Each structure stands twice: as C-alpha cells, then as structure tokens.
C-alpha cells in the first residue's frame, strides 16, 4: 500500500511539473553548457544569409536562440533554435 501511494505521489508530482512547464510556455532547446553554443553574432549572420529578417534576437529561459522576424518568404515568424546545432525546435508563423 505504501509503495502504491509513493508511486501515485511521484506520478502526480511529475504531472504537475509538466503542466507548469506547459502552462508557462517554456520551450526547452538544450542542456548543453553555453561554451558549446554557437556564437550569437555568427548564428544571426547565417540566418540573414538564409533570407531571414531578424527584428529581435534573444536567449530564452529554455536555453534557446529565439528570433522574431520574417522568413525568406516574408512570412512573420517566431522561431526557437537549438544554440548548439542550430536546428529548429519550434516555429510559429503569423
């Protein structure tokens, strides 16, 4: 009985933590140390060379490089990138 209660408590805590993360909208991109991340200026220059127009660039609480701007098709976008490998983790077009 004690084991069942402990298991239910652990599952409930995990569910609560997941809900909090989702509720706050934190997108996680990496747990790698910043020493392993690409240089911010170089990364932005690569995006511009690919046709992106960057209105705002920032580092998020979820360890992402995030841009607000326009893609090469001139669609308004918000994109979260993994700062280590540059892959897109989440993209929203507006």
UniProtKB/TrEMBL annotation:
Signal peptide: 1-19
Domain of life, source organism: Bacteria
One Pfam family hit: PepSY_2
Domain PepSY, residue spans: 13-92
InterPro entries (alphabetical): PepSY
PROSITE patterns: PROKAR_LIPOPROTEIN
Keywords on record: Signal
Protein name listed in UniProt: PepSY domain-containing protein
Organism: Alteromonas genovensis
């Amino acid at each position: 009985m004690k084991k069942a209660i402990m298991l239910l408590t652990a599952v409930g805590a995990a569910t609560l933590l997941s809900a909090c993360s989702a509720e706050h909208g934190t997108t996680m991109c990496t747990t790698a140390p910043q020493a392993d991340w690409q240089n911010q200026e170089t990364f932005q220059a690569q995006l511009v060379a690919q046709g992106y127009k960057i209105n705002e660039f920032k580092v998020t609480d979820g360890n992402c490089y995030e841009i607000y701007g326009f893609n090469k098709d001139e669609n308004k976008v918000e994109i979260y990138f993994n700062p280590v490998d540059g892959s897109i983790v989440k993209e929203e077009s507006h």
